[in-house]
Design goal:
Elements: H1 9-15, E1 17-18, H2 35-47, H3 53-63, H4 67-74, H5 79-90, H6 115-122, H7 128-144, H8 147-155, H9 159-197, E2 201-203, E3 218-220, E4 225-227, E5 234-236, E6 239-243, E7 246-256, H10 261-284, E8 292-300
Parallel strand pairs: 1-8, 7-8
Antiparallel strand pairs: 2-6, 3-4, 3-5, 6-7
Helix pairs in contact: 2-8, 3-7
Length: 302
Amino acid sequence: MSDVDFSSREQEYWFHVSPQDVLPLAGHVNVDIDLGRVSKFFKSAAQAEQKIIRETVANLLLEDTALFSEVRQFLGISDKRAYLDLSYIASRMPNPNGTEALCGCYPWTLSRHPLQFFIGLLNGGKGKEVQKAAAFMMADYLLKHGLEQAAPSFAVMSIDVLEMLYARLISPKEYQQRAAKRRGHGCEASLAVVLSAIGLDIEPSDKGANPMGARDPNVDLVNMEVVDRTAGKTHSFDMVIKHKSKARILVQSLIHTSDPGQYGVNKSDETVAIIHEIRRWASANPQRPGVAPVSWTETGQT
């Protein structure tokens, strides 16, 4: 092989592309499910008469609230697709206990709620009336996505066949989607561990130990201070390295574990603009040396 050619940034970038399994994973991705429970659900749904299948599915979800997350996988619905769809539907469904929507917000806020939020509604965390309404909403969602048509086929499959189907066709996709975000955070955690080990003051201080839960710091680029987020005025970074409580190095991670899409492209463009802004500030404030942007980019193949 010839000598490495870094004559352009593009060549250097593509040289550092890595297989996904080389990128560190933050935490653990668990995709194991109880296929016996799932099989029982499909058998009950398949045996229900059409006029009562909606009520049957709603009652099954109330009896075992974890089933929604497991059954939606067999219908080809990703976690993200499910929670975005349910967030929209719930924001436009009346709440039996108040003037707001079923999710507790309003249609014009269009708040996103994780899937666990809706499982919480099924568990009765917002009262019996909301619990019942959520069960029918989520039953309708599964039925809309083909549950009635798919249940008879899944119902007659043995546990061994369901296990093979899940292991070969469903689990890899589910793992990929759950792992993608954790890989980006895993890389950030690895850097944070090194920075802390050499004695640097980083924010958030728990980035290495809690990469998924640590809050990204926001920086006001007018005075180069870490502040609370203000839309349109502050910029979010993955880490800030400080010295004597002052920001010195701002770290923006651009780790793509799949094709970045338009959002990733926009984020990259925005990062370039922020770099120019930081350099202008540093030139205008020579009394505070060392403020510098670091754009840390690594790509994992899909």
